[in-house]
Amino acid sequence: MAFAVSRSxxxxxxxxxxxxxxxSDNVPLRILQIVTTFPLTKPNPIISMKKILITxxxxxxxxxxxxxxxxxxxxxVTGPVVRPGTxxxxxxxxxxxxxxxxxxxxxxxxxxxxxxxxxxQNAVLIxxxxxYKTRVIVRRPAKVRDFTGTVLVEWLNVSNMHDADSDxxxxxxxxxxxxxxxxxxxxQRDGIHGPTGLRSWNPGRYGTLDVTADSTLLWDQLxxxxxxxxxxxxxxxxxxxxxxxxxxxxxxxxxxxxxxxxLTAYYNCVQPINGIIDGFIIRGGGDKLRTDIGTxxxxxxxxxxxxxxxxxxxxxxxxxxxxxxxxxxxxxxxKRFSDYFEQARKRxxxxxxxxxCSEPLCSLxxxxxxxxxxxxxxxxxxxxxxxxxxxxxISVMQMEPMVALARDTLRxxxxxxxVPQFDVPVAMNIGINLGEGYCVYYGTxxxxxxxxxxxxxxxxxxxxxxxKASVENNLKAGYILREDTLxxxxxxxxxxxxxx
Length: 500
Hints:
The chain has helices spanning 29-34, 49-64, 166-177, 189-193, 198-201, 203-206, 223-232, 258-274, 303-308, 335-349, 368-384, 420-423, 450-456, 460-477, 485-493; strands spanning 21-22, 27-28, 76-78, 100-115, 124-141, 150-155, 181-185, 250-256, 279-283, 297-302, 322-327, 396-398, 404-405, 427-430, 444-447. With 500 residues, the chain is α/β, with parallel strands linked by helices. The protein has two domains: 21-295, no CATH class; 326-500, no CATH class. Helix 9 links the parallel strand 10 (297-302) and strand 11 (322-327). The model is unreliable at 1-70 (pLDDT under 50).
């Protein structure tokens, strides 16, 4: 891994085109617009001796690594945490079947915050350090020999006022069949201090967590340095290394939606200063990226992201270090995410209520297969300096007064990376829905009538022939992996009933 130090800004053209800033506390205004605030507990004037000692240890690590305060702050790592209660948003997947384990750790130290007045240029370190304590989740192979050296560090999403592992949800099969380590970082205030955050969910387990410096910071000023320190711990001495004996060879940072917005800010403003991350995958959010930074960055967008999150407006040409993929027919929150998210909420909160949308819920076009291929390209990009293949842009019909995408007579969008399920369709799949709450992000689908289907493919065998050809074309283009093709073909074989 490469090393240095820094920080970033956040939010994206999904919510506003203008780049206005809030002078107070040096917080970008768009962060204030997106991240809803909640009342926090009053500062506690009584500081325990344990807290003082941990702060002193963190300060010594902060100053001593490479001999400079600007080098590499390393937090104190405590854990695995086993009680009281259980891990919030623990994996729904039985990791043991894959030879994996899940652990939770607390990170505690001193974090810096930054001025973003020059955004998107480098952030400026403010001469202030604040104490923090947060948690991270680690999902790793049980045996060191099964680790392939790559760690995916996800900025956990808090759009629903609690942590959610959006990227893990899309990637878990591929991560575990390929020997990755996944780490989820709780970097933001809402995930810890909000009404459904960690402290409220289990005060006995999480009550000492704090990313607000005893409520003196109202926003996410420390989040960037907290994320940096979580990554830094992967190269710390074993006592303060999240992975102990596991040797990290490369780190890929990922984030979706709001987390993508913050990670974009990190890439633009912090990564040039610290260089600690080897590659970035930014999905479904974020401003334009700087092109003078040498770190590989992969932007992956769903169809709906172009319209709802400003990704059409923020399009950029590919460069030596930037590649963008747009996946046709997919939604910001797809069926895979929806199913996983609702199950996790039912387990952790005791209730689950999928949104009641105007149209059938979710696009059924899978995003995970393309994401798995993208991750493999990213690793090769880091290891061998071979960039991913270029994507195919989704066809945009107009940009003003609002973005409109070009569609065929069946209402499916034109252009984009077209996975076989979309390239050889049996239904209309659109990335946008209508209705309450977050409905717009879930997309919708509608099966073709038998008469339309038989015009497209007179028999199931005709359909299968075209589907197999699309699988091979996507493989050749590098948009899917060989390991995922059997599941795709079995899905296509299972569509035989549509012709009966």
